[in-house]
Structure formats: C-alpha cells, structure tokens
Amino acid sequence: MNWSDRIPGGLLRWSTVLSVPGGLIVLTACLLAWYPVLIPKAMVPLLAGMPAAVFLAGLLLAWFFHRSRMIFAILLIGLSYAALWSLPDNATHPIRPLLGILLPINLATLLAIKERGVFTPKGLWVLGTILLQAVALFITVHSGSDAMAEGLIPPFIDKRWTAWTALPSTTVVAFGGALGFVLVRFSITRQSVEHGFFWTLVAVFLALHVRHLQDSVLYFLASGVILGVALLQNSYAMAYHDELTGLAGRRAFNDTLLRLGSDYVIAMIDIDHFKRFNDTYGHAVGDQVLRMVASHIALVSGGGQAFRYGGEEFAVVFPGKELAATGPHLDALRATIEGARFTLRGRWRPRKKPRTSNAPRFPRKEVSVTVSIGAAVPADRRVNPAQVVVAADRALYRAKKAGRNRLKY
Questions:
Q1: How far are the Cα atoms of 29, 94, 241, 315 from residue 285, in angstroms, in the given order?
Q2: How far apart (Å, rounded) are the C-alpha atoms in residues 219 and 28?
Q3: How many domains does the chain have?
C-alpha cells in the first residue's frame, strides 16, 4: 500500500496547501544552511545585504498594494535583522531571546487586527508601538547590563523540554503559541496572509535558534521572501476572486476565455427578481442570497467552472463540452437552487442558536430563490469567445422573457 493511501484525502490536501510555497522556501534555506557549498561563491559576499534588499522590495510592494499589516510585519523583521546584525557578539547576545519573545507576539497581534492603513489613527498607533519597542530594545541591549536583559526572560518551563535549543523556554513558548494561533486561523480561512505569517514565524525562529550568522542571514532572507510571496498571492486573490461569494471573479473569467479551445459551452446565470428582493429585504440579506446561490453554482456538475460575472449574474464555462452534454447539468443546477429554501432573519430572531430546546420560537419566513440560465456554443471555429458570451446573454434574456426559472439555448 502506498504511504499516501494511509492519509485521509482532506488531511493530505490541507498539508499540501500549508507546505507550498512557504514550506519549500524554508526547506531551501535549511539546505543552504546545512550545505553552504551549494551557495555560489560570488554570492557569499553579497549575502548579508540580501535580506535588506528583500525587505525594502517587500515594503514597496506592500505600500503599492495598500497592505498595512504586511508593511508592519516586514518592518518588524527588518528592524530585528538590523539589530542582530549590528552586534559583534550577536551569537550569544541576549537580544536573540528578547527578539524571540517580541517577534511572535507582535506578528500574531498583527494577524488578529484588520487592515486599517498606515496613516490612520489605528495604523499610527501600531507604528508607534513598533518603534517604541525598537527604542526600548536598543536601550536594553546597549545598556551594558546583560543581567537586565536576561531578567526579562525568566525560565517558563523545565529546561529538559527545551534542551534542543539554546533559546530560553519563554521564547519557545512564545513561538509555539503564535504558531498555534496562526495555524488555527489558516485552517479556517486558508488565506495567503495566514500561510505567510506561519512560515515567517518558522523562519524567524530558526534564524534566532542557529548561532552561525550566515545561517541566520539565510533564514531572515527566507522570511522576507515568504512575506513577499504571500503579498503577491493575496493581491492575486483580490484581483481574481470575488470576496463576497468566494468564486473566481470577472478577471479570472476573461483569462479563462483566452485559453478555451474550439469546443466549449458558456452559460450565463442571473438571479430572478433580485433587485426587488434587495429593495424589499435590504442589501445585507441580498448579499446572503448571493452567497447561497454562489455556493450551489460552485458545485455545478459536468466539469463546469463557476465565476461571478458581476452583480447578481454568474457564469459557468464547460471546456471541451457540447451543448447537449451540459444541458442536464445546468437544469439540475437550476432545480437545486429552486428547491433550496432561504430563511430570512426576523427582527426578533436571536443571532445565536439558543442553548435550550424550550427557548421561545419566533415565526420564520422562508423564500424561494430561482435563477434563469442562458447557454451558448461557438457556431464555428472563427467565433470569438466574447461573442459566445453575448449569445449566452441573449439566451438568458429569452429565458427571463419566457417566465424566468428556466434554461434557454
């Protein structure tokens, strides 16, 4: 039996998502640290300056994409690297365990807050806190009293549990708690930011754990690359995925059209009477309806790829399919959405489920949501996919004109 057959599919997929690309970047840094002969000789003199260049590039990217949490995270790690590099006795200096307490706490806190911008009141407060910590750390490590610095990091657990590292147990606990927090968030959100922060914490811990300065440089460099990749992944997701429904967005749809061959089906889907529904019950309920419909469209059978086209309109692309083969799948999707019941939240309905079964019951109003679907295929090889979209839109219009809640070609 293959070893992968013994691992549940969901766990294997989750582990793969967690490991790529951050885990591969950390693994590369480990290989270079263990086998420095792999580093080209021409790059060795430039190695110390590479993290600073990566941090600067990351700051510029984060500024361009307006990602304040990334700006603060890169600033934290960059200042830590500068502090460590500036000390001649950095291999044994108490700054390592001090950074080992401050960095994981700060990174976990950054992940817990929302994007607020840098020059907003909350953004300035975060920036001021980071700079205040940097000043306090500078005073502590340059005071000439190692005892004062070491007094800030008392033993937390039995040293036998942390004998594998020279870092104090307080640092190990701080990193362990931060990694656990980030891992839980990633298991819920599957977002690139959580992924980047998780592997950044791993890389920074290794940078503080090792004693050879060149190895620390490699791990700090890896942390900067990881945050840069996470920033690009996050920006890609924002551009190509719809935040409200979780489906691929209009730009992803346009890119898919460019890659289609000669045989394909494009279906346009529109929620019936959505404007009236939105005006009656409000935009918050309208958003819930969009999410509900999108969740069904995402599960369309027959090899269809689902997209949010815009507003209350969705699109499904069937590459390599014929119209007759996709009709049953589209009609089954239409029937599934029609059969689903959407429960409106009443004014007196509690937002949380009552703990007791004898809690007062309030009347619930259920509404039915239906969709109209128009589908089209290219008439010949010379037809542009954009023209097929127009044809599918016309079929959608015919479906609505015929009474809605139906499929037309």
A1: 49, 55, 21, 22
A2: 10
A3: 2
Please tell me the pTM assigned to this model. 0.76
Residue-number span of the structural domain to which 288 is assigned? 250-346+362-408
- pLDDT above 90: percentage of residues in the chain: 56
Instruction: Identify whether 312 is a catalytic site residue.
Output: yes
- Give dist(CA 44, CA 287) in Å, integer: 54
- Bridge partners, residue 371, by sequence: 271
336 CB-contact burial (10 Å; exposed 0-12 / middle 13-18 / buried 19+) = middle
Residues with Cβ within 8 Å of residue 362, at least 6 apart in sequence = 346, 348, 349
Residue 253's nearest CA partner among 407, 245, 330, 288 is 245
What confidence tens digit (pLDDT) does each residue in 181-230 have? 999 999 888 889 999 999 999 999 999 999 888 899 999 999 999 999 99
Among 240, 258, 284, the domain-final residue is 240
Sole residue written with tokens 């001649």: 88
Q: With residue 94 as reference, give the H or E element that holds it.
A: none
314 or 161, greater pLDDT: 314
Distances (CA, A) of 198 to 24, 57, 130, 342: 13, 20, 20, 38
Q: Is residue 356 part of a domain?
A: no
Which of 194, 312, 322, 338 does the annotation list as catalytic?
312
The residue whose two tokens read 């996919």 is: 385
Q: How far is CA 199 from CA 23, 25, 29, 213, in A?
A: 7, 9, 12, 20
Helical residues (DSSP H) of 66-168, grouped into ranges: 68-85, 95-112, 121-141, 146-151
Contacts of 337 (CB under 8 A, 6+ apart): 293, 296, 297, 369, 370, 371
CB 204 within 8 A of CB 73: no
Which tokens in the block code for residue 40?
A: 């080209």
Domain end (from 214, 240, 266)? 240
| Rounded CA separation 108/181 (Å) | 7
